Backbone:
């Protein structure tokens, strides 16, 4: 399923830019991101470390701080989120768009019981009374696979193991039943068996709740297995998006091709995204052309001087001059 | 370990520290230059008079015997007889302690009531004018000597505007509070400055924490986030400092009581030091040390109440 540009039911991100003002000058962390997530869809977002995946998610949920300048367009159900006030964002955050952070330990407040941290969301978005909220919190813990929920609700984050904190964070993000879940590497901090459990949990909940999922991951195998579509990011830009199978079988961008080539052995099915040779791009001085050109094997002079346009055709989009030479 | 056991352990730690304080106090009083006889009787007393008084006060005994008598006295609640006032030290301290307790308590309350909201305002408006104004005013509070602040308040609000009494302690609770308000403000100024600075810093620190962003991601109102998520964590980082500062509040009370002629233990301490009144100096130091230890204990209890990670 491909969301079109004027989609008024899902998420449509266009020309998203985030510049951080730092003491050492501006950092162009997100430099033109385009993304679509249709209702009920699982969309993958991949890219090497520092390519701007987390910053993009936070920009969508309007969670960045005052040192970030965010421009472009983030349309959610036809509404432009970037022009809403903080008060207008309140009913959307948590209730319509939920987010899971990369670091579960840091995302939980160390001094509040888990039960309260779940219930807060219900207090903000529902008319449930205390008994109903507690029942719902118990149900959520059960859904994310935390046993003996009643005792757990009164406990604090430091009494939870890493995997349980991750589950608790998911329970909190899901409390008010959002229609879209932004999941930032929900499994990276965990060991392999738990990774698998959490991933299957998210997919099951997606099916049960009819929720859309924007899944950030380093794991191309996970993308191949779970995501209907994928967006590949490099240096704050989306290089290409399209149905996962098509993109992996026949990449339209040199960076995607390099990623797939760099994977050992049997293709994406069981491969982690590993860094490709060359220098990481500079975010303080973005190139006027394609950011990947210095590491690209098929670049031409035009690539270093003029940014390739994002070309949309049928179900896929990409921004690469060298596509024909891949 | 459960929290009750943790608290008991914490109480047990106090016992050896009290013992140590006793020894230090006893030794220090005897290291002070000058002797109490010349302070009390003047330089021209006869040797016979001096010997009689020495025997009466037990000062002719050996130092270890004096120490034992001192410790034994503590356990019997008898702290000896003041050399200068010729009344039991216990009675003297009982008369003077309430003024000091009210003074420091009131100044702690004033400091907290003033500093906590201002710390929030300053942190919310970081580097904007409210922050800059609040910080510069308190910078003055930190760098101005306490007796000068006292004299200033005394001159303006008592002598010129006649809003408050010039000194003394008054009769009855309301009168006490009214008399002690200016001295308490004096004492509170530097305390509030330190509290405001550290709380402001702690709030700014907590505001960058991921869990604050996660709380925002739930769609919580910013006031709720500040009150529930930020304040508590910022206070945890600050209470220890408040507890540590009770000692300097008591130290500041010595000066403030002198400026405002408050009949508290601070002024008694100054008088006793000038008079080499060993029994009073010893007992007062002991009492003050116990008060500071109790303040630490209260701090720990507050810390335990605020922070679920403590004592588990
Ligand atoms: N608050 C900030 N201030 C300045 N720079 C920032 C800030 N947050 C992120 N960045 C920078 O933005 C860039 C993109 O960061 P981001 O966290 O989005 O990367 P990522 O793709 O999520 O990487 P990873 O896979 O390691 O999580 C990085 O270079 C990072 O240093
Ligand atoms: Mg990230």
Residues:
């Amino acid at each position: 399923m491909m969301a079109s540009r004027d989609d008024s039911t899902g998420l449509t991100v266009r020309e998203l830019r985030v510049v951080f003002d730092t003491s050492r000058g501006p950092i162009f962390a997100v430099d033109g991101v385009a993304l679509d997530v249709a209702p009920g869809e699982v969309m993958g977002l991949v890219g090497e470390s520092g390519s701007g995946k987390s910053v993009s998610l936070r920009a969508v949920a309007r969670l960045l701080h005052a040192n970030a300048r965010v421009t472009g367009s983030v349309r959610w159900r036809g509404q432009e989120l970037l022009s809403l006030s903080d008060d207008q964002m309140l009913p959307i955050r948590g209730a319509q768009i939920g987010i899971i952070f990369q670091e579960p330990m840091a995302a939980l407040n160390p001094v509040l019981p888990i039960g309260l941290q779940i219930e807060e969301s219900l207090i903000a978005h529902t008319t449930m009374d205390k008994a109903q909220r507690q029942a719902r919190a118990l149900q959520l813990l059960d859904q994310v696979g935390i046993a003996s929920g009643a005792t757990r609700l009164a406990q604090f984050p430091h009494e939870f193991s890493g995997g349980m904190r991750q589950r608790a964070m998911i329970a909190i993000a899901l409390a008010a039943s959002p229609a879209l879940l932004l999941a930032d590497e929900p499994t990276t901090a965990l060991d392999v068996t738990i990774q698998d459990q959490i991933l299957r949990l998210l997919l099951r909940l997606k099916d049960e709740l009819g929720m859309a999922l924007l899944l950030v991951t380093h794991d191309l195998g996970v993308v191949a297995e779970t995501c209907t579509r994928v967006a590949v990011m490099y240096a704050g830009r989306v290089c290409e998006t399209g149905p996962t199978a098509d993109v992996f079988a026949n990449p339209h961008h040199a960076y995607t091709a390099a990623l797939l080539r760099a994977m050992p052995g049997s293709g994406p099915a069981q491969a982690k995204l590993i860094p490709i040779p060359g220098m990481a791009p500079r975010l303080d001085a973005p190139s006027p052309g394609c950011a990947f050109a210095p590491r690209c094997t098929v670049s031409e002079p035009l690539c270093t001087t003029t940014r390739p346009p994002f070309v949309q055709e049928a179900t896929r989009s990409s921004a690469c001059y060298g596509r024909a030479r891949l | 370990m459960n929290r009750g056991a943790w608290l008991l352990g914490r109480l047990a730690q106090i016992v050896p520290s009290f013992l140590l304080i006793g020894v230090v106090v006893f030794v220090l009083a005897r290291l002070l230059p000058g002797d109490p006889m010349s302070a009390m009787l003047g330089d021209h007393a006869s040797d016979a008079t001096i010997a009689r008084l020495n025997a009466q006060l037990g000062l002719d005994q050996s130092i270890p015997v004096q120490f034992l008598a001192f410790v034994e006295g503590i356990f019997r609640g008898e702290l000896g007889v003041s050399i200068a006032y010729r009344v039991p030290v216990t009675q003297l301290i009982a008369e003077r302690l309430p003024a000091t307790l009210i003074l420091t308590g009131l100044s702690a309350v004033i400091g907290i009531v003033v500093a906590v909201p201002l710390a929030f305002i300053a942190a919310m408006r970081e580097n904007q004018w409210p922050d800059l104004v609040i910080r510069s005013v308190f910078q003055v509070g930190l760098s101005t000597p306490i007796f000068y602040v006292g004299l200033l308040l005394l001159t303006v609000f008592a002598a010129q505007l006649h809003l408050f009494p010039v000194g003394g302690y008054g009769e009855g609770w309301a009168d006490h509070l009214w008399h002690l308000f200016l001295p308490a403000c004096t004492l509170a100024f530097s305390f509030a400055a330190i509290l405001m600075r550290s709380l402001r810093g702690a709030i700014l620190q907590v505001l960058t924490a991921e869990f604050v962003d996660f709380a925002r991601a739930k769609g919580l109102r910013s006031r709720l986030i500040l009150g529930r998520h930020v304040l508590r964590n910022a206070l945890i980082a600050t209470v220890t400092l408040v507890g540590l500062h009770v000692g300097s509040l008591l130290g500041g009370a010595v000066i403030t009581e002198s400026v405002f002629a408050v009949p508290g233990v601070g002024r008694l301490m100054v008088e006793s030091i000038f008079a080499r009144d060993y029994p009073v100096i010893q007992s007062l130091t002991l009492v003050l040390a116990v008060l500071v230890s109790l303040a630490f204990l209260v701090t720990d209890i507050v810390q335990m109440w605020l922070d679920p990670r403590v004592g588990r």
About this structure: Confidence is low (pLDDT under 50) at residues 1-5 of chain A. Chain A touches chain B at residues 58, 61, 63, 65, 86, 89-95, 98-99, 101, 103, 106-113, 120-121, 124-125, 156, 158-159, 169, 172-173, 175-176 (CB under 8 Å). The longest strand of chain A covers residues 25-37.
